[in-house]
Every structure is written in C-alpha cells, then in structure tokens.
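Troubleshooting log. The previous structure file for this entry was overwritten by mistake, so regenerating from the original sequence record. Sequence copied from the archived sheet and checked twice against the printout by T.R.
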Amino acid sequence: MSEERTVETVHTASTARTERTAEGPYFDELAVGQVFGGAPAMTLTAGHAATHQAIVGDRLALPLDEELSRAVTGRAPLAHPALVWDVAIGQSTLATHHVKANLFYRGLVLRRAPLIGDTLRTTTEVVALRQNRAREGRRPTGLAALRITTTDQHDRPVLDFWRCAMLPLRNPDTDTGHAADLDVVGAAPGGAALAAVAEGWRLDRFAQRVAGPRPTDLAEGTLWEVGGGDVVSSAPELARLTLNVAMAHHDQSAAGGRRLVYGGHTIGVALAQAARALPSIVTVAGWHGCDHLGPVHEGDTLHSTVAVERVHPLDGHGGLVHLRSKVRAVHADEPPRDVLDWRYAVVLA
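Regenerated output below.
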C-alpha cells in the first residue's frame, strides 16, 4: 500500500492540476494494526531462480538438481529458500520505502517448500512502534516491528516472521508517544515447526547422492572458517528482482550518499558459503534471528565463519542442525568489519 501525498495544486483559467507523490509511509504515519497487502503477487520462474543464483551464489543441491529434488521430495523443481524469503521481504517493503536500516529478523519459519511456478503473496502488519531518542544533527527516526506473512496461490502458509525497520519521521517535530518494548517482539520457532518443512522427504536418498558431513559427524562448537570471500555485485538488480522498493537500495541520495546493499543479499552469500562447508544441507528450515551489525556496500568482499550450536536427530534419517554464521566485510585496504550475525536451522542429511 503506497501513500499518494498531495504536494501542490495549480489553478489557471482553464485547468486545475494536482501533483502527487507516490511513496510509502514515514514512521509518524504508521499505526499498530495497520496492514499493507498491496504488493504484487509474484510467480516464481526459472528466470528468477537463475538470476538469483548468479547474484548470491546458491549452492544447495535440491534447487539445482530437479531429478534429485523429485527423488527426495516427490516434487520438482524446488525453489531455493533464499529466493522465497527474498521475495517475501521485497513484498513487505511497501511499508519500508523510506527505511534507513533493518535491525533484525526474528522467528522466520518455512511452513512449506514452494516450487518454481508457485505464486507468493505477502501481507505486512505493523505490530509495534518505538520512536528513537532524538540526536542532534540527525533526522528523527523510529523503529517499526512488522509481521510478514506469505502464502501461495492456494492460500497455504509459506512464511511467517518479524522484521524491524528504522524509518525517518516526516515531521521532525512530532512526538508520536510510541515506546513499545521491541525485545518481546517475535517468537522463537520450535523444533517441530522447523522439522515440518522436510516431513515425508527421503533424506536417505539425498545422503546416498550428496557428499558432506552427516549429523552424527557434528558436535556443538564445530567451527568452519570458510576459505575465500565473495564479492558483492548486482545489488540493485537483486532488489528489483525481488520487488524490493526500499529507496536506500536504489537511490544513493536516499542512502546518505552511498547505496546500501539489501540485507538478504548478505544472508544469501552467507548461506552459499555455509553450503560450501556443509554441502549436505538439504534446506533451511528457519531462522532463530538475524542481526545486521553494519552496512554492506557493492564491491565489498564477504567472509564468514559457520558454527554448530545444536544437533537434533530427525525420525528416520538426517537431523536438524542449528548454525550460526558470522560475516565480515572487507573493502580495499580497510580493516574487516562485522556486518552480520545470523542464527538459523538447516535440515542435514
């Protein structure tokens, strides 16, 4: 849902013209309970999948191998989970057109694994608001906690999660009174909900055909330093591909002089790097949390470590492995800087 704001009306003897600005809301124009449901639905295509793979380097075996996907899941071609959540996040940006930063994502759970050809629809609800303390020399801002719910063409649940966006106020002198405790926003996904995405899958067939560590090979505290980095490129193209209209990813003036890379871009690269360490990842079941620790810009090179936090066996075969990816960015001769702390659960065969 975009807002059309009347800027100026010009009258002449024979004409009357109304000029409007098509833009999303500022922080002081949001209200708890407000729902944004006007983003275009998007049918996932092979073209989307190929472009997404070229930008973030998807390396999960199931989305890349239709025959394997059919043998393991009974369905194909499977959409990459990062493509699915990137589209959902992009559809949610009707509410965050003016976003300055995303502080966190919480409780993301894949309720089902969409196929190429499925259509995703997303609604975004404002669930909590907190105005930030004013800082001298800076435009006033506030934090908006949003619940994002995505379904497919049959109204089946696909995603359900929370994100927190920092937005500027339109009127810098406004005191909205919003002071919600954002620490209580979101719910941690339970083990049963995380495991459900792979229910009925033949993980034994995956293990027979794909090399890599098995759940029984892993222990809490196992750590990989992923060798080599990945340069961030085609940042605005990924934003456009996934319907992301946040100005900071497209317009350098809106980003304070240098475009910001969409946070899902960094997450996608981190997942591709994790799959290099653990090629036996079948899919991502969900996220426990994701904190963006600093900005990423096009041309940065991303490096990551991947740590095992917990391992839970699944009935029959495979396991649910809880991982933590920490990502740092390097640019030219500048020192490395921390940019991402992502905690998530994967199905491992």
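The radius of gyration is 21 Å. Archived copy saved in two places this time.
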